Amino acid sequence: MILHKGRFESFVNRKPLTMTIGNFDGLHIGHRALINKLKYEDSDSAVLTFYPHPMKVLREMSQHQVVTSIEQKIELIEQCGVNHLFLADFDRKTASITKEEFIGILKSLNVIRLVLGVDFRFGQHAKGHIQDLMDEFEVVIVNDIKHLETRVSTTYIKDLIYSGELDKAERLLGRTYSIRGEVIHGDKVGRTLGMPTANLDVDSYVLPPNGVYFVGVIVKGQTYTGALNIGYNPTINYSVKKRVEVYILDFDQTIYGETVEIFFKKYLRAEKQYKSKDELMTQLRKDIEDVKILSSI
């Protein structure tokens, strides 16, 4: 896959393209339905998406929670067999591009065909409609994918993750939900308890409810089993800021600064404040045993 990154004016392409356009956060089964329609003998397949997410710019949000990081999105699109990925810078200038200017950009990229969802809009203030594009390109419209009469969308999947319905989210994503984060320094309380944890910087991600989860962990290309806690450590070392930390079974390495990927496999229990350190330790040992049992199934 050829990755084109930067401003629209920096993009150069001479081959005819069949393109789909969108944010593609999560790259769920609805997005894949679009990408699967890109294969034509007369053209290369292409995806046009934006970074950062337009909502972060348009709503001036310091933090916009996503289902996939930009790195994950690039990898997932490449796995779909796409020939070209255009990753366009999104800022106020990009947001001000008129529908006529946007059509001109697509023509300059040698787009001959567009594959779009039924509600696709484009250009400044979303004034552009599919009909505007039909006057200039061949347009293939792909109907919405529905789950239990609800349109599959990133917003729907976010709601499922926030509410802890990870099995449903997994079905709509077409894969196990995962997050990536850099291992950062914590207070090392877990080490004093004999259960050292890796604290993760995952502020940009949509997170499921607080609690303990059975997870898969990828560190330096190797896969491990882990118990992950999301919450505020109410029993020992209470934190005002929500923390995400993982205990990795059969692992004894220093990995500060490394990027770790976490795959959510099963919710184990809610976060709880215990009466004593001993009561907490008893529960933590039970969590580890539960994880070992689940990993052997």
TrEMBL record:
Keyword Mitochondrion found: no
Entry annotated with the keyword Disulfide bond: no
Enzyme Commission code: 2.7.1.26, 2.7.7.2
CDD domains, sorted: FAD_synthetase_N (cd02064)
Catalysis: reaction(s): FMN + ATP + H(+) = FAD + diphosphate; riboflavin + ATP = FMN + ADP + H(+)
Coiled-coil intervals: none
Domain (Riboflavin kinase) ranges: 172-296
Source species, domain of life: Bacteria
Keywords noted in UniProt: ATP-binding, FAD, Flavoprotein, FMN, Kinase, Multifunctional enzyme, Nucleotide-binding, Nucleotidyltransferase, Transferase
InterPro entries, per database record: FAD_synthase (IPR015864), Riboflavin_kinase (IPR023468), Riboflavin_kinase_bac (IPR002606), Riboflavin_kinase_bac/euk (IPR015865), Riboflavin_kinase_dom_sf (IPR023465), Rossmann-like_a/b/a_fold (IPR014729)
Protein name according to UniProt: Riboflavin biosynthesis protein
Organism of provenance: Acholeplasma brassicae
